[in-house]
């Protein structure tokens, strides 16, 4: 199983935020979990940290954690993800479309995936398995 990280899942896990779902926390704490971070979720996380909206001390600290965690692979915002995102009209936000599209592209490559997210738009779209 490959777990796709939403922006909130990443930030709340790193902060130790109680809003992180218990199942998501267990997966993110498991040293054997295979984690995929969509490039757009990383970019959004960097933006949030740079604006001082988290307890993460700096963008450098965030990037170091992501780089040093061997379980995390950053998935590029490539043409496959963008093409798929255009078709996801049921999801309002561009970033959310691209996160879900990343999960769908990886699933389309024959992988079993689940998206770690509590975003209401993503959950309501019911396009990919959600874990929280």
Which percent bin holds the helix content?
40-55%
Radius of gyration: 14 Å
Query: Can you give the mean pLDDT?
Result: 97
State the distance separating the first and last CA atoms. Answer: 15 Å
Oligomerization status of the protein chains: single chain
Arrangement of strands in the largest sheet: 3-2-1-4-5
Report the structural category: alpha/beta
Largest sheet: 5 strands, parallel
Strand content: 5-15%
Order of helices and strands: EHHEHHEHHEHE
Backbone shape: globular
Number of helices: 7
Please report the total strand number as a whole number.
Answer: 5
Q: Unreliable runs, pLDDT <50, ≥5 residues?
A: none
Describe the overall structure.
The protein is of the alpha/beta class and 132 residues long. The protein has helices at residues 7-15, 22-29, 39-50, 59-68, 79-86, 94-108, 120-125; strands at residues 2-5, 34-38, 72-75, 113-116, 130-131. Helix 5 (79-86) crosses helix 6. The model has no long low-confidence stretch (mean pLDDT 97).
Protein topology:
Blueprint: E1 2-5, H1 7-15, H2 22-29, E2 34-38, H3 39-50, H4 59-68, E3 72-75, H5 79-86, H6 94-108, E4 113-116, H7 120-125, E5 130-131
Parallel strand pairs: 1-2, 1-4, 2-3, 4-5
What would the keywords be for this entry?
132 residues, alpha/beta, five-stranded parallel beta sheet, 7 helices, 52% helix, globular
């Amino acid at each position: 199983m490959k777990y796709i990280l939403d922006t909130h899942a990443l930030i709340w896990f790193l902060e130790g935020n109680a809003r992180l779902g218990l199942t998501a926390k267990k997966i993110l704490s498991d040293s054997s979990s295979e984690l995929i971070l969509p490039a757009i979720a990383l970019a959004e996380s960097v933006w949030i940290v740079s604006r001082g909206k988290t307890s993460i001390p700096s963008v450098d600290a965030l990037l170091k954690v992501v780089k040093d965690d061997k379980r995390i692979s950053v998935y590029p915002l490539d043409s496959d993800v963008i093409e798929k995102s255009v078709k996801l009209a049921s999801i309002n936000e561009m970033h959310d479309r691209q996160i879900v599209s990343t999960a769908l592209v990886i699933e389309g490559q024959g992988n079993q995936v689940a998206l770690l997210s509590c975003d209401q738009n993503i959950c309501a779209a019911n396009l990919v398995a959600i874990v929280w």
